[in-house]
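Protein: 2-keto-4-pentenoate hydratase
Species: Pelomonas dachongensis
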Amino acid sequence: MTEAPIPALVQALTACHRDGTRLSAADWTDAVRTEADAYAVQDGVARALGWPLDRWKSGGAGPQGPFSHSPVSPVAGTAFLGVEAEVALRAGVDGAPEAMCIAVELVASRWAEGMEAPALLRMADFQSNAGLLLGPWQPYRALAWADVEWRLSLSGQPDIVRRGGHSLANPASVLPAWFKHATRDGATVKAGTVVTAGAWGGLHAWTGPVAGTLAFEGLGEFAFRAAASR
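Structure follows.
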């Protein structure tokens, strides 16, 4: 690789989003050495693709972090690896939650190794995001999140029914860290920016077109359907 590693990776990942190709992680392990490098790649690819930066994914290992953040693709990606059951929040210009909805994150990878690629490379690749499906919005209110029952039904598979299971005591607790990240270097946040706040129950493997329903106690039920763009 004769080019500077981060600009070269930005160019390569941008091409993957446009033509559906994959990269070998082994060729790029030295390109991203820190989280700052990964975020620089995210910024470069989102800019090259013209993303409006009005949708984000954020999450953390626990209420105190550490947290990670990524812009979300405005269109369905390629070759899904699975879906994640989520709750999305709509934030005001100050980062406070104004509304919430059931959400389904589509998961894919621009790495040939998929979820086995190194963590920093997956972070650079928008944390393996391939789009976000949103249910009806409703005013934000605090729920007893640890006790909320949810059910994910995927076509042809047994229902997944669980209670709680989110890494944060309250999904909205990720918003201050996200807001600090999104407004770094003087950037501003648009009113109504969407932040999906992490998976309930981890990744649910799936390939090909996906259809099903996701229900959360207190939020209702969302029927969804998506097909990869290639």
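Remarks: The chain has four helices and twelve strands.
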